[in-house]
Amino acid sequence: MTFIFTREGMEFAEEKFLSECLCEFTDIRNEYNLDDETLTLAKQNPLLERQLLPVIEGCTVDGIKKMAKKVYELEMNKRIPPLGGIASFAFSLTSDLTEYKNSCMTSYYRQKCVLLQQKIKQVEGFEEILREKEELVSNGDVAAMFFLEKAYEEGRLCVKNVQKSLSYYQKAKDTWTGDLFQQYEKWLDRAVQDSGLEMIGRMGREYIAGTFAEEGKKNRDCKLKKEIKWLNKAIEEGDGWAAFTKANICYYGYGHWKKRKQEAYNNYLKAVKSKDSIYALEFGEMCLDNGITHTEVLHKIAEVLSGGL
Questions:
Q1: I need a labelling partner for 169 at 20 to 30 A (CA). Which of 32, 147, 212, 221 fits?
Q2: How many structural domains comprise the chain?
Q3: Which residues of 159-183 are buried (b: 16+ CB within 10 A; e: fewer)?
């Protein structure tokens, strides 16, 4: 599109311009299925606000006048040549300024309608994703809980809602302390049977009972060399519960095993990333102790469990 060099005497028929814009804009909205009902529904979703505003603007005379100023400024910014570039500056002459301005407005408005239509389809996709995650949550899926916690905390797939975000985080923790603790107990039984090391089962049950740190201080004579060796082998094979158990030992410094925060962090992360999607309950506290904010901790866990948004 070229800049219009207007000559003295060239006239602009504003009334005709506004009338044609109103008519053509209606046709464009219909072309992209943006009828009154669709626009009314779109107004109810804050995620569509940015794309919706210019389309709504084109529905009234006052809105079109306001839009015309923006379009004029955009055209001027695009067409003013750089210093020294006057010789290469192309322009055309026209005797119908009204027609030219109408053409610029129509092109601009069509772009805005396309963007709104695309965003509406995208948001519909988001809503379907959220419905699927809600169904998984109802079946006790911890990964889905963290996915929704992150979604409502960030407000990219849905409207931000702090209360909903916190409720999904709490639901995930409640699920952990319920069903997942039962899974941990079953794993402890198998681990003791496979390793022949009663201490692994004992430490695990102390953790479930909430006495792990206290018992660790009492049992300073426990060296845990065999236990750590067995856990390391299980971790190499992708066992999340083994990573979780070792992380607890490192974090609390059980027996002779001194506190090793970085090793605890690494193993908690392995637990979170494991094939069982284990949420390491102490992982958050570990991160907080190292200066990571609560929100960053939640994001880290949610990102790993959900596979990203």
A1: 212
A2: 2
A3: eeeeebbeebbebbbebbeeebeee
Question: Binning pLDDT at 50, 70 and 90, where does residue 155 land?
Answer: confident
Report the distance separating Cα 18 and Cα 21, nearest Å.
5
Determine, yes or no, domain membership for 272: yes
Task: Using the structure block, give the residue that is written with the tokens 């839009």.
Answer: 67
Its pTM stands at 0.52
Q: Enumerate residues 6+ apart whose C-beta is below 8 A from 82.
A: none
For 242, other C-beta atoms within 10 Å of its C-beta total: 25
- Both 21 and 109 in one domain: the answer is yes
What the block records as the tokens of 194 is 């496979």
For residue 4, the surrounding DSSP H or E stretch is strand 3-4
Q: Do the domain assignments include residue 166?
A: no
Q: How far is Cα 277 from Cα 38, in angstroms, rounded to an integer?
A: 40
Kindly report, residue by residue over 279-301, the tens digit of the pLDDT. Answer: 555 555 555 555 555 455 555 55
Helix/strand/coil for 92: strand
Using alpha carbons, select from 75, 73, 135, 125 the residue that is nearest to residue 100: 75
Q: Residue 128's CB: how many other CB atoms inside 10 A?
A: 10
Of 180 and 181, the one with more pLDDT: 181
Looking at the fold, whether 190 and 123 belong to one and the same domain comes out as no
Q: Are the beta carbons of 207 and 248 closer than 8 angstroms?
A: yes
Q: How far apart are CA 50 and CA 293, in angstroms?
A: 31
State whether 28 and 110 are in the same domain.
yes
- 77: buried, middle or exposed (CB in 10 Å: 19+, 13-18, 0-12)? exposed
Q: Token pair of 120, please? A: 């509406």
Domain coverage including residue 264? 172-306
SS3 call for 174: helix
